Amino acid sequence: MTAESNYNAQIGIQKSWNEINESIKNSAVKCGRDPKDISVIAVAKTKPVELIKLALDAGIENIGENYVQELSAKHREMDYLSYNPKWHFIGHLQRNKVKSIVEFISLIHSVDSFSLAKEISRQAEKVNKSIDILLQINSSAEESKFGCPPDKAAKLFEEVSTLKNISIKGLMTIGSFSNDESITRKEFKLLYKVFEKLNKDFPGNGMLHLSMGMSSDYQIAIEEGATLLRIGTTIFGERNYNK
Asked: Which of 51, 63, 111, 53 is nearest to 87 (CA)?
């Protein structure tokens, strides 16, 4: 990046971040929530480390990635003497890729099976740490989406809870790519309902988070109880899939 393009990107990211924070604050207050209970995961898919550093300079703490290979490359490139990003893995995770991220990941959002959870725990034990995870629930019932069916969530929760090196911190869902607000809201409501039932059936389980809502629907997600918002294009601009 040239000095001019770097400066323009810095101004753009800072402006977007300020606007998002103001929007979150307004949405939270309107529905009687504390804005401090809501965090943003800045999704940096296809974006270079230079832009991630600018996002961290702007005050962003959490960086989300969808692909293990891309996340691992950015981890290797990151200047940890100057920056301390909290890495979130939000994409579909294959069991054979877990070992590549287990040492530095802060939160895995997309655990949708006991076999995956078991591998995460196994790899975490090797590096003597516990991994925070979210259980991914398929609240839209779309076959193209990963996630545990809502009616199987209790069974998965119970199974994963037996693993030593894993800590379940909440649930995650990916809403339908629909312009119909009622569909999106229904799916977010369903995730909250599953969350409430698990907290009732398994008291003291330590679950705090609902990861739902992206650039197009995060305000609805706030109204329906989201604590983690996965926002990418609103912060970084449109993704470049040609790189």
From this structure: 63
Q: Please say if the pLDDT value at position 11 is more than 60.
A: yes
CA 210 from chain centre, in angstroms, equals 9
Alpha carbon distance 154, 151 (integer Å): 7
Q: How many domains does the chain have?
A: 1
- What is the pTM for the complete model shown? 0.94
Least Cα distance to 233 among 217, 219, 218, 214 occurs for: 214
Mean pLDDT of 192-208: 94
In a domain, 243, yes or no: no
The tokens for 228 are: 């983690």
Q: How far is CA 3 from the centre of its chain?
A: 31
* Rounded Cα–Cα distance for residues 235 and 241 (Å): 17
Strand partners, 148: 137
pLDDT, tens digit, for every residue of 83-119?
Answer: 999 999 999 999 999 999 999 999 999 999 999 999 9
Query: How far is 43 from 196, CA to CA, in rounded Å?
Result: 27
Residue ranges of alpha helices (H) inside 46-180 are 49-57, 68-77, 114-126, 153-160
Q: How many Å apart are CA 51 and CA 132, to the nearest integer? A: 26
Taking the chain, what is the end-to-end CA distance rounded to the nearest angstrom?
15
**Is residue 186 included in any domain, yes or no?**
yes
Could you tell me the CATH number of the domain that includes residue 154? 3.20.20.10
